[in-house]
Amino acid sequence: MRHYFNRMIQRVLSSAALLLVIVMGMLGPVQAAETIEVESFWLRESVPGAENGAGFGEIRNTGSEDVSIVAAESPIASSLELHQHVHRHNGQMAMEQLDALVIPAGGSVTLQPGGYHLMLMQLKSPLRVGQSHTLELRLSTGETLTVEAEVHPLVR
Ligand SMILES: [Cu+2]
Fold first, then answer.
1. What is the pTM of this model?
2. Which residue, 2, 25, 27, 29, has fewest beta-carbon neighbours within 10 Å?
3. What are the TM regions of this chain, as residue ranges (predicted)?
4. Does 14 score more than 90 pLDDT?
5. Total structural domains in the chain?
6. Separation of 100 CA from ligand 1 center, angstroms?
7. Is residue 14 included in any domain, yes or no?
8. How many helices (H) and strands (E) does the chain have?
9. d(CA 41, CA 106)
10. 130 C-alpha to center of ligand 1: Å?
């Protein structure tokens, strides 16, 4: 009888442990998603003949752990890339692709012309002022952040 009772306790405990693992697994990512905020994201109007587009905005991390943007996609482009503008030694500006963009804990990163930006490769149609498009940002936590971005004129 005592043996049976011990086994029952053991089973209850292992179920509780399993449940705890499941609950923690569900809480972790949800918390992370809530800590990433995207502020006024926008896309630049296409110039005639341009194949690619660019997206800008501010990404804030109110959490206590760094979170990275590891990929992005949108139905309006074949692929999206994270880019950075860099000054070459010859004084020219060039774009460099990043594997990930780290949004530091308690900090923010601003994507803006001449700096970090989201590059929309091979647009399916030109970006026109007044349109709004959906972008999906993949986070290092495994989650996806959906962002609505309005198209703004080249000069603001
Ligand atoms: Cu670029």
1. 0.76
2. 2
3. none
4. no
5. 1
6. 14
7. no
8. 1, 10
9. 19
10. 22
Distance from the alpha carbon of residue 16 to the mean position of ligand 1, in angstroms: 50
Please report how many Cα atoms fall inside a 13 Å half-sphere around the Cα of residue 5, on the Cβ side.
2
Please give the distance, rounded to the nearest whole angstrom, from the Cα atom of residue 87 to the centre of ligand 1: 13
| Residue 52 in domain | yes
> What distance in Å separates the CA atoms of residue 125 and residue 122, rounded to the nearest whole number?
9
State the Cα–Cα distance between residues 65 and 76, nearest whole angstrom. 32
Q: How far is the CA of 145 from the centre of ligand 1 (A)?
A: 21
Helical spans, DSSP H, in the chain: 2-35
Q: How far is the CA of 7 from the centre of ligand 1 (A)?
A: 62
- Residue 64's CATH number: 2.60.40.1890
Q: Which residues, chain by chain, have CB under 5 Å from ion ligand 1?
A: 83, 95, 119
- pLDDT tens for each residue of 61-111: 999 999 999 999 999 999 999 999 998 888 888 999 999 999 999 999 999
The C-alpha atoms of residue 65 and residue 91 are separated, in whole angstroms, by: 36
